[in-house]
Amino acid sequence: KAGVTQTPRYLIKTRGQQVTLSCSPISGHRSVSWYQQTPGQGLQFLFEYFSETQRNKGNFPGRFSGRQFSNSRSEMNVSTLELGDSALYLCASSLGVGRPNTEAFFGQGTRLTVV
Amino acid sequence: QQQVKQSPQSLIVQKGGISIINCAYENTAFDYFPWYQQFPGKGPALLIAIRPDVSEKKEGRFTISFNKSAKQFSLHIMDSQPGDSATYFCAASIKRGSTLGRLYFGRGTQLTVWP
After folding, report:
1. Residue A26 in contact with residue A93, Cβ under 8 Å?
2. Within the 6-65 window of chain A, which residues sit less than 8 Å (CB to CB) from chain B?
3. What is the mean pLDDT of each run of 10 residues along chain B (115 residues)?
4. What are residue A42's DSSP bridge partners?
5. Interchain CB contact of A82 with B (< 8 Å)
6. Which of A23, A96, B15, B18 satisfies CB 3.0 to 4.6 Å to A31 for a cystine?
7. Is A87 at the interface with chain B, CB within 8 A?
8. What share of chain B is helix, strand, coil (3-state, %, to 5)?
């Protein structure tokens, strides 16, 4: 069973640019969450999607946005990049249905460097 | 405000010894407590998880102990091996509707097991 796939693995962008990251969840999983990981702030929640709807949102500025498609694949977009956006962006997928099925499985992440 | 507090920040254990990592939380609405293991360059991998109606859960060399009244939970790694050297994160969440909801992570514990 394939795991969570995130593309690209590495990105280098310039301040002011925008970037789109992609996540393909485990087959059959309908919920996708995004997290930002930095040495200073640790793992921080960005947003969660289920059935193409945003269900939860973390405390990030509006420059951070996301969406989920009908096949459960998700993208997140960061506009007007700042140096502080340099981080490992992680996608997690879960079944999203029923209490026993709440385990979240992470992808390997996209390492974004803003210069 | 850190919703989940984790200690110690780093831990050095001899091969064959017991590694113990502790976490504490304040929000009594949390109903799911997973532990993740992360190797450099990889995403966090789900190790073991527990719900508040259980005081202990064991899977192989890994055990979670949960103290609901003290609002604390801990990870015990028995017979620690050099291959266990990684960063460990505790987390907590409140299941919302059909989805996992937001995971609140501790700041992580860097475990080093000396051969």
Report:
1. yes
2. 6, 31, 33, 35, 42-45, 48, 50, 55-56, 58
3. 92 98 95 94 93 93 96 98 98 79 94 96
4. A38
5. no
6. A96
7. no
8. 5, 55, 40
SS3 (DSSP) at A73:
coil
Backbone angles phi and psi of B84, in degrees to 5: -85, -10
**Rounded Cα–Cα distance for residues B86 and B108 (Å):** 10
Structure tokens at B55: 């005081």
Q: Return the closest-CA partner of residue B109 out of B87, B94, B84.
A: B87
Is A105's Cβ below 8 Å from some Cβ in B? yes
Assess whether pLDDT exceeds 70 at residue A101. no
Question: Considering CB atoms only, which of A44, A45, A107 is closest to B43?
Answer: A107
Determine whether the interchain pair B102/A48 forms a contact, defined as Cβ–Cβ distance below 8 Å: yes
Tell me, what DSSP letter sits at residue B42? Answer: S
CA distance to partner chain B, nearest, from residue A1 (Å): 15
